[in-house]
Amino acid sequence: MLAFTAIPLASTPPVEQLHPYTSVVVQNGSILLQTHNSQPIARLEECGQHVLRQLTMQSGIDVQYHCTVMGARGGKSRAKKTPPPSVELSAVLYGPESLSQDLADYLEECGLYLQDPRACDRNVVYINPQALAELEGVPLWTQEMRAVHDHETEIFQAPANVLADLENDEELVETIDPCALATPLFKHQRQALTFMHRRERGWAFYGPHYDIWQACSTANSAYGFTNTVSDEVVSEPPAQFRGGILADDMGLGKSLTCIALIASDKDSIDLTSPRKQSLIVVRAPLLETWETQLRRHVRPDALSWRRHHGRDKIKIAEELRPHDIVVTTYQTLLSEWRRNDCGHQPMYAHDWHRIILDEAHDIREGSWATARAIRALRATCRWTVTGTPIQNRLSDLASLYQFLRACPYDDPLVFQDHVRRLGRFGNEEALQRLRRLVCSIMLRRSIGTVELPRREDLLVRLDFSEAELALYNRVGTSTLRILDSASTGAVETQGKGNILTCINNLRQICNLGVHARVSVPSHDNQMSPAPQAWSGEVAQQAYNSLVTIGQAICASCGANQDTASSEVADQVGNALQPSLSSCSRLLCGPCRDSHGVDCTHSPQHAWYAVSSMSSATNNAVTPSSIESDDLPTKIKALASDLEMHTLEEKW
């Protein structure tokens, strides 16, 4: 069931004059709620109208509406004017089970989640594809469900919270810090090293810990292998799998843990065996960051590394031999994979001991070219590193399992089928099986469950210089005028992008002072500037502002475009670039190409493609453009503070 709140019409009579149950009609393209005597009382909001139109057009889906009218809550109001009633619309969906997963995917893209149905007048099997194990009993029929009344509160756990149930609670032993490592590890990092060493030994067929596959005795006393998720038994051992997913919360030092794993190769090195070489794949902006991490955490001359990117690409296989680590980017590998001689390229012709994917959720869509390029690499051990392995739904893990080659879940169809079938088990049993599927391969700890040194934040309040204050006041006055116009309705929807730009200008002045590249009015008394017509340039400015405040989020899949994969950022001709509408609805390239542009408004607002790359450089201030004695106030205070601390303290 879907639940919507309708917007009461001005002509809606007092609640005591209304029958509590109403009907639904479509009038002039709008979905209206009306009383038993055909008097319209409320209109469904735009998003709800769009979703219900799409569902009613889908062959095989039948929608049953249930409307409830309730008075204002919280006691009697002292105001003379009677508040409008609260109108709720419930939509119970009927259809074949084969459509359930597609329906769940569509609703999640719209930010909607199914709830237990109310007033269901058909006795049918109840299936909620968005809840893996919310209901006990197999099957559950709708007439067996307890009705939910108005005074009760429904609690629904969105898929984003699934990770909380999949955190590792095993007390892992601590592995000793590798000799090649210069930085001491924290307890949770040494425990992660234990987990990673265990996974690189392959399936734990014979224990002592749980794994997806375990050895068993069959009816004829022969040995077989049981899938602990699906109960499938096979006679031959499944394809070996080494690696996993490191999915600790941001801030827990996943990069250092991966470096420690590579460094531990030196502790058990066999002089007669070939060098164990690791390939680290990162986003282009993080290339220098990873090299800095290696210089900081590895003892001098303990490990050898080089980058494979731009002018520093490795041309022949012989250049690989002296190095323990090669750091490259997703885009570099994608470019080489698209060449006809891909198999002869050093990265693809080499048999790596280990591949580590940083920000691995960038390949969450297995059909993306980047994901296919990464899967073509050859390696013994495969690791994916991401703090957000599940962004929208459990099936986000399917592409990661496909890269890891974790049999049989390297087939996305098998993964989705087994996850869907978990619903036939009871609550506790389904959760245990899900944990075997995920936790045996993925290590996930939230920052609240890990013992870390206490962090102290020092807030220093600074005063603008005279010139900075004057600039801030001029831009601030203009911004307030635009905000006032917006609050009174004088600014059209397309003016939202201008408002974001104005607010971003104030932030830039705080950071860069008079060096901020902002446009200001010529004098304080001028009238509020009219909003610019929506164009490619204005859309790019608005997008840059969204990136700055961390709100460049795809409205469909929820992906943060500021951290979008280099495949998306570097496509020529905006083929996979995001698009932004004049009503500030943002779609990433893949979602736009899959679903088309739809801002949920009628008529549609204008859309323009925007560049992820230019957002990083559009407002950049180069060091050469600032004199040392003319630094912004904030930068000057930071530099002064850094001079007071030793090198060790700055780390």
Give the helix/strand layout.
Elements: E1 2-8, E2 23-27, E3 30-34, E4 40-44, H1 46-57, E5 62-70, E6 86-94, H2 100-109, H3 187-200, E7 213-217, E8 223-227, E9 233-234, E10 243-246, H4 254-263, E11 278-282, H5 287-297, E12 305-308, E13 325-329, H6 330-337, H7 346-349, E14 351-358, H8 369-375, E15 378-385, H9 396-404, H10 412-421, H11 427-439, E16 442-443, H12 466-487, H13 496-512, H14 536-548, H15 566-570, E17 579-581, E18 586-587, H16 589-595, E19 607-609, H17 614-617, H18 633-643, H19 647-650
Parallel strand pairs: 10-15, 10-16, 11-13, 11-14, 12-13, 14-15
Antiparallel strand pairs: 1-4, 1-6, 2-3, 3-4, 5-6, 7-8, 8-9, 17-18, 17-19
Short summary of the structure?
The protein is α/β, with parallel strands linked by helices. The chain has 19 helices and 19 strands.
Describe, in plain words, how this protein is organized in 3D:
This protein is α/β, with parallel strands linked by helices. It folds into 3 domains: 149 residues, no CATH class; 192 residues, Tandem AAA-ATPase domain (Rossmann fold, 3-Layer(aba) Sandwich), CATH 3.40.50.10810; 124 residues, no CATH class. It has 19 helices and 19 strands. Strand 14, helix 8 and strand 15 form a beta-alpha-beta unit. Helix 6 packs across helix 8 and helix 13 packs across helix 14. About 10% of the residues have low confidence.
